[in-house]
Amino acid sequence: MQEHTTTSGGGEQIPASDSTTAPQRSAMVAIIGRPSAGKSTFLNTACGEKVSIVSPVPQTTRNAIRGIVNSSRGQLVFIDTPGYHESDKKLNLLLKSIAHDRLPESDAILYLVDASREPGREEELICAMLASSSARIVVGINKIDLPDSKPGMVRLFLQKQLPLVPSDRIFEISAEKDTNIDPLLLMLFDLAPTGDPLYPKEFYTDQDVDFRISEVIREKAMLNTRDEIPHAVYVEIADLEMRKNGKELWVRAFLTVERESQKGMLIGKGASMIKKIRTEAVKDLNGIFPYRINLDLQVKVNKNWRQKDPVLGRLMKR
Ligand SMILES: Nc1nc2c(ncn2[C@@H]2O[C@H](COP(=O)(O)OP(=O)(O)OP(=O)(O)O)[C@@H](O)[C@H]2O)c(=O)[nH]1
Ligand SMILES: [Mg+2]
Question: I want to staple 272 with a disulfide (CB 3.0 to 4.6 A). Which of 154, 268, 278, 297 is the partner?
Answer without folding.
Answer: 268
